[in-house]
# Entry
Amino acid sequence: MIAFVLCCCMVSCVKDEAPNNECDIESAWVEGPELEKLFYETAEMRKENISSTETSITFVVRSMLMVPTQIPVNFKITDKATIEPASGSLQDFTNGPVTYTVTSEDGQWKRTYKVAFAEPVLPKSRHSFELADTVEGGIFIKNRYHQFYEIDENGETQRPWASGNPGFALTLFSGAGPEEFPTYRSDAGFEGHCVRLETMSTGELGKSMGKPIAAGNLFLGKFNVDMSAVDPLKATEFGVRWDREPVRVTGYYKYKPGKDFTNSDMEIDPNRTDEASAYAVFYRNVDADGKPYFLYGGDVADLDKVLDNLLVYKMASVPSLPPTDQWTRFEMFFDGEDAPAEIVANKGCNLAIVFSSSKGGAQFEGAIGSILYIDEVEVWYER
# Structure
């Protein structure tokens, strides 16, 4: 399900051989009792382990009307790099993002970040996958892949959906285009465009490392490309903030399993046929210590154990997605305990919705060539 790379390939904004030339913000935070009242949770006052691919940092607050005109934001940056404006300097965020520039020690490399304070913008209830950017990723050769986005009621661009494409890009050295990636936008939708997910080979490099396939996947959340080398199953951060109790998820799909089901050693199992998967989890987004909490790829490898997690309130899954070449409606209902109303109202829960062309993709099991189409996904709230 998740692409990977060698740790030695994981560098940011720099040439491989040049020392002291990185220019990243690694963490950002605000502090003090006067600023605590701005946030739903004090844990949201800190942004840790910021990916080297990020160029924006947003602190989510209760209301912009509460935000003072002078706030000191603190940063941890790459060793010996510099940042302008200075870390901890007073800045006005009430008129929009403030641009910070990080410069490497050798002075040759720069990266700009947009730092903002904003009220939570929640995803729409219906997702049609009509819009996608073509972005670049890779190490030495730029590969181009699709990244889905949506336009909210205020006309702002939101990106609640993610995939493993950024990690897969790091395994390619051929200048691949969007249709050569496991997840891309297709024009063969139930209505207009849709998502096309395909299980693909990761090549000889992947096979040698016991990760021979990458399942096509799409999920509410983020993909942290830096973690794909360190701990692949933690590269997928499932879930985005949600403010209503979901009851069911519906949508349309088509599915064709690949010919040969293989395990992580690429051994063919003639007794198994690949399966697609679709499931959703509604959970608390901070732990008992008040720290931000995410579900990761490894956490949901065994769905039966997910509800045993005290931070998970309920989940839903489609029992099966039988092969079909016709658009077919699916429906999954949430089962579990209702979250406390006060926690839901205070944006204290995340909703994760996950689709994969191979159910065993997280264990690098499946059939190369399995293809799943998904369209018109909708979250319902009435009972």
About this structure: The chain is about 5% helix and 35% strand. The CA atoms of residues 70 and 91 lie 5 Å apart. The longest helix spans residues 203-208. Confidence is low (pLDDT under 50) at residues 1-18.
